[in-house]
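Protocol step 4 of 6: structure prediction from sequence.
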Amino acid sequence: MSRFTAVVKRDLRLALRQGMDSFMVVMFFVLAVVLFPFGVGPEPNILARISSGVIWVAALLAAMLSLERLFQTDYEDGSLELLATQPMALEITVAAKIVAHWLTTGLPLIAATPLLAVFMNLPVEGYGVLILSLALGTPVLSLIGAIGAALILGSRRGGVLLSLLVLPLYIPVLIFGVGSVEAALGGFPAKAHLLILSGLLIAALPLCPWAGAGAIRQALET
């Protein structure tokens, strides 16, 4: 556990030194949402109708911005090979890096969401469900994205390839994330959607670090 925490702290320190990366993710999220009223018009009813979908899609795309660098920097400077040879299992190292990625990407996105929900005229009934759905869904985005980030190690034009790999896998998270908010706004229970998101998170927690570690081992052997 101490080594797991050490890897998380290491990645957090590196992220703070390169603070512009996290700032750019949040700014992309904010700008992507802010642009929609200019495109569809300021009609409050229209904004309220599309608000949950716009926020979720913007959060999904913003989370992808920093995925390429999840392992790439360590791979290029040789740190990833050292991390792979340490006594701690590589799967635990991958899990620690995913936690650090979510803390520097997913958590700031969730923190910025209430302000954007007000801007998009989201009804009050959907605030809590939107935050909860993002709290359950953004870790799944980081977990699935870690597999894609590991698979593109050493490849050229990795960003495009990463998008092609992970976007189809993001669709269920997007559907149930938006569906939970829409259910709450329609006066229906959002519990079923949130339970499915919880199930996706529980399934991704053991599987994604294992798959990501396998992809990293293959990349290091080539």
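Step 5 (inspection) to follow. Residues 191-221 form the longest helix (31 residues).
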